[in-house]
Structure formats: structure tokens, C-alpha cells
Amino acid sequence: METILPHVIELKDDDRELDLTAIVPEGMPLEIEIGCGNGRFLAARATKNPTIAYIGIERMMERIRRCSKKAHRDNLVNLTFLRVEAGRFVRDLLPDGRVQAMYLFFPDPWPKRRHHKHRFFQREMCDTLARIFIPGGCMYISTDHEEYFKEMYRYLSEDVRFTEIEPLLREADEQTDFERLFLSKGDAIYNCAFRLNG
Description:
This protein is an alpha/beta fold. The chain is built from six helices and nine strands; from the N terminus they run βββαβαβαβαβαβαβ. The protein has a nine-stranded mixed beta sheet, sandwiched between helices. The longest helix is centred in the middle third of the chain and has 13 residues, at about 60-75. The radius of gyration is 16 Å and the shape is globular. About 30% of the residues are buried.
């Protein structure tokens, strides 16, 4: 684990443990965005909710730089970005019962069938969420890809550990760049949210 920019930590491939308390104080509510892009959504949320810790997961260095500038400029002490592979971070590095919300907005759909194995959200992700969420923890999903949406929705709706809730309606300052682009073109956006029973 190494700080590479203000508000940005890089996890190396050989890091097998994460000292989460070095990033998020013990007892502070934690929310995570997978594939946070340039950090627009999380910066808005962190500004409005200073008592909640936010972590954004991103691999692309240029996006990480933009995230860092946003958080540093606005002095968002409750916002950290991790440069790490999202699946490994969620599956292997997060402690049990610690996350109160996870956001997955416009993930790479890997549309070719032979590439579906690369999708972040597979059926096993339900087990991971049930482990890392606090009781009542929520998963929020938005995508423009109908087939991938139906797949994620099916996994969560068929799992008795989760209950469907109202999707998150984001204010204009919380909309991701992808979302703004799709909305400007009139494309359909599919949303759902599920809460871990508790």
C-alpha cells in the first residue's frame, strides 16, 4: 500500500492485506464506488456527507489524477481513491461487515459472450456483498447495457438475502460523465438497488 498522489493509494498486486483503519477511522460509515471514473459522483457525495468515508476504486492512471485534484482542491478528508483491481479488492481485501453502501455505475459490460467472465458482477458477487455489508447495506446499480443489467438484477432478486429498494436518484452534480453523455443522447439507463436483509 503506497500513497502515490494526494488522496490516492495504490495497492500492489502482492498486497495480501489491507489495513482499512489507515484509510477509514474505526466506526466511521464506509461507502465505496467501483470504477469511479474522474470522481465526480464521490466528490459530490463526500462534500454533502462529511461524516461518511468514501472510497473510489479505479485502475486508469489519468482518471486517478483527476480524482486526486478534485479531492485535494476541495479538501475532502473523507474521500480516498484506491488504484487497485476492483474484483480483488472487494473479494479479498475488505473486512466482514464494514460497508454500508456500494455503487456500481456504468461498469464495463464486456458485451461479447466469451468475455463475460471479466464482468465485475458475477453471481458470486452476492456472496461477497453479504459478507462485506453491514446489515441493511445497499448495492446501487446503473447501466446503459440492458443485458448486463438484467443479469445483475436477476442475481440479486433471486438471492433471499437481499430485498429490492428504490434506486438512487442522483442530483445533477452527482451524475457521472457517462450518465450525462447517455442522458444527452436520450439513451435508456437502467437502475436498481438492493438492501442486505438484517
